[in-house]
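Encoded backbone
================
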Amino acid sequence: MYDEDVYGPEIWGGIAAREEENVRGALDLEIELARKIYLEHGWPTH
């Protein structure tokens, strides 16, 4: 995490928001990929 004293709250808030966006984007891609694999190959049984 970033220290507000070093970066300032405005910059820190922007960095945190960007990180959250990246996490959401990665989760969306992971869900999309899992859905595609499921549709092509069926639900894993093991």
Summary: DSSP finds two helices and no strands in the chain. The chain has a mean pLDDT of 79. Residues 9-41 form the longest helix (33 residues).
